[in-house]
Amino acid sequence: MKLWERYxxxxxxxxxxxxxxxxxxxARIIAGGTDLLVDLRxxxxxxxxxxxxxxxxxxxxxxxxxxxxxxxxxxxxxxxAGVTHTExxxxxxxxxxxxxxxxxxxxxxxxxxxxxxxxxxxxxxxLPAGDGTTSLVALxxxxxxxxxxxxxxxxxxxxxxGTGKSLLDSTRDLLIRFRFHKADVNAGEGTxxxxxxxxxxxxxxxxxxxxxxxxxDARQHLADVRICIAPVAPVPMRAQxxxxxxxxxxxxxxxxxHAIQTARATIKPRxxxxxxxxxxxxxxxxxxLKRTLMTANERAKNLIHSRENAKA
Length: 312
Fold this sequence. Notes:
Uridine Diphospho-n-acetylenolpyruvylglucosamine Reductase, domain 3; 3 domains; five-stranded antiparallel sheet; three-stranded parallel sheet; 12 helices
């Protein structure tokens, strides 16, 4: 069963863009292929008598340096769309300055999947349950794309039109890389991610939560907060009502309880036969929010690092 006619390995973004134009809608971008190859096989199984593969060509972006690097750029971090989840987990830069992203990418699938699946693929398929996506939203990331003949940056949330519906045309457009500010512990910033998943090896999150915080100069009150809890809607979204009640507060039992009440009043996860009931997921919002917020706050205060030094 032939899934494509030709396979290209461009070595630059411009070369990949040129190939997309050459095939005029008949090619697809591939990196890890953990979703795309499943989709292609499903298409061929559904139409076994088809006289030609679903796509004339696949364009493999894993040899393009710009799309496969993790690097610091001043106060920002830039990650190529072709970077794998394993590379993210192993990055010392990300472990220090984007801890939530490392934690979220570290629970995607199993080791074999993480070794090939990419952060860009997590976003390009526009699934609201993507663990890496949840952290990118909390980090206020931007995505660089090629679309309509030009490269431009968009807010990560603009990439999602609906469940499985991306801003990008997968046969003509290209997701190139991501950019976000470092979470600087010296500036009182910290991040964390946690999730609850089905235990039967399905690797589906019941809920995931990613939090970014910045403390005031005294390291006592929350000067700013960003929270993403997913999947609870057709697209990834910020829990803005929860963020608003936390700004200016200390992270204590009273403020956490208020945040949980606000979250449960404004976030309404539905029942999913693949995940859990709405009632259970609603209850878990509070569990995840408390756990993740407290960890991000401790990291912003450098308490976790201090405890590790004391043990050493």
